[in-house]
Protein 1
Amino acid sequence: GQNIDQPTEMTATEGAIVQINCTYQTSGFNGLFWYQQHAGEAPTFLSYNVLDGLEEKGRFSSFLSRSKGYSYLLLKELQMKDSASYLCAASGSARQLTFGSGTQLTVLP
Amino acid sequence: DAMVIQNPRYQVTQFGKPVTLSCSQTLNHNVMYWYQQKSSQAPKLLFHYYDKDFNNEADTPDNFQSRRPNTSFCFLDIRSPGLGDAAMYLCATSPGSQVDQPQHFGDGTRLSIL
């Protein structure tokens, strides 16, 4: 079976750093995706982790621990436009993706 | 730009009246997916096509069907929509050959049932 947990909501201040956690329990795990979804829009790809450790991409970084079934997305220097839902998704194969319910991030001025 | 296009963005239908949602892609990807997403919930995979090979999820209601007449187009048919089928429907594509290839999503069709 597949089970992915992430917080429902988070709030942070413009310019700050926020960490969005995700835990997963899946069969046949290959890697972990993070997507950003603004209200009423499609999810857009942010990052993919297959090996343990931190992957940095500009203001966004993503971490994976396979042994702990744990990932996080780190957003630095928050901007108002970062207010969105952040979806954690576990890849079970080249065609199988299981999404979490998303963490709604609100960035306050 | 290569992309995934869904039409229409907003669709209103009546209870029980069949409706078809469309998706096209210029990415030439092998795999096309249909997801249903309700407010504040995860996208739920309904089915996907790998080329012409149709893969239905076990819990997808029989009311939902799909067609892929060629590589570029895929349709979602809802035979008798109920109030519970009101949702955002997302189409996505991927090459399907490697696990690190992300899915590319269209902007979605928001379906309302009257």
Protein 2
Amino acid sequence: EIVMTQSPATLSVSPGERATLSCRASQSVSRNLAWYQQKPGQAPRLLIYGASTRATGIPARFSGSGSGTEFTLTISSLQSEDFAVYYCQQYNNWPPWTFGQGTKVEIK
Amino acid sequence: QVQLQESGPGLVKPSGTLSLTCAVSGGSISSSHWWSWVRQPPGKGLEWIGEIYHSGSTNYNPSLKSRVTISVDKSKNQFSLKVSSVTAADTAVYYCAKREYNYGQLNYWGQGTLVTVSS
């Protein structure tokens, strides 16, 4: 099973600032990586797939990069609605699909 | 646009069987998608449970495989989850979700349903 490790666990950012979230895989997942956003009481929402392709309707301030074992989600200018928990998920080796433990982006 | 809706008992006794259904609307369960279950214990991260294709083909998380059964009912456009021999560790919000046939990302999710295992 591929283990996904996200850092940091919590990221404190001021509105308008840039946020950079990291996700590391225990072995190469090529570019088969997705990012999800989850707000309290809501289901996860797909943001990015294929490491860097934005899902339908996702604003351009969200961008993904990386390949192999190291990935990054960048939110270029944080809006109030972006404060949430973000998860990465690998879908290169399955079963099972595996998720990271999440990074909480909170208001500084 | 596809919509997914979970339903089932919110409380299950220890050693019992958890049973949930996911109703699919706005699309056919017989389309080229895999239909998944994902769970999230309170305050914790996401765990993929398993998935099914309309043909009946399934994939399960090896950590849960011995206790999990996922089935599909094409006549009702829905799929179901059963988890047997439940313990408090199975308490979680259970989500159903969908992915395209040749892609791994989960692009549609239900709103989730909380299942508590307690006597």
